[in-house]
Amino acid sequence: VRVMCIEGRVVSAYRRKTLHAPPTEQTRKNPQYVEAIEVTPELDKTVVTAANALNLAHACVDFAEGLDDELTILEVNPTISLWRHVDGDGMHLTEHGVGSAFADMLVNALG
Prior knowledge:
With 111 residues, the chain is α+β, with helices and mostly antiparallel strands.
């Protein structure tokens, strides 16, 4: 599961799934797809808290998903990467997409 956060706001949340292999064997030989997930208040708080704890204006927080659907943080990335497919697939939680929210953050910072 990957959740993107910009300026204290969750802007996208999705999980990757493989088509032909167990999740531990995700490679280029095993096609993947992504699906949007619901952002619960608890997930929102966890992601925003993780980004704030590291003093990050933007972050991608990656989670492992257990058999009981419990999420465990794997890492907090200090970048927003691979957002074009999120915008293209309509999996953003913003008015104009993650790319636009990121650009707005930069313009405000340089302001």
